[in-house]
Amino acid sequence: MLSVIGVLASTALTRVMASQIWGVSPTDPATLVTVVVIVLAVGLVACVFPARAATRVDPLIALRYD
After folding, report:
1. ∠ CA 38-12-14 to the nearest 5 degrees?
2. Tell me, what's the pLDDT at 22?
3. Which of 20, 33, 39, 45 is 20 to 30 A from residue 3's alpha carbon, by CA?
4. In 3-state terms, the chain is what percent helix, strand and coil (to 5)?
């Protein structure tokens, strides 16, 4: 859902983007899709590693420290 909002916002700001980037159209679908995929991948990696570490902790020990 947030990715859709980001794509719509970036498309709405094409004039600003056009003055900042060279050689790429502001509404280039390949660029927009690539950016969305990269952001989603970074978000997934940022969530997976802490989640894996949390699954290795015994729940009783974790609750004892709270």
Report:
1. 80
2. 76
3. 20
4. 75, 0, 25
By the 8 A CB rule, do 29 and 37 touch?
no
Q: pLDDT tens digit string along 22-37?
A: 777 767 788 878 888 9
Alpha-carbon distances of 64 from 1, 40, 53, 57, rounded to whole Å: 37, 35, 18, 12
First to last CA, the chain: 34
pLDDT for res 19: 77
Average pLDDT over every residue of 38-49: 94
Q: Kindly give, in sequence order, each residue whose CB lies less than 8 Å from that of residue 4, ignoring residues fewer than 6 positions away.
A: none
Rounded to whole angstroms, how far apart are CA atoms 27 and 50?
35
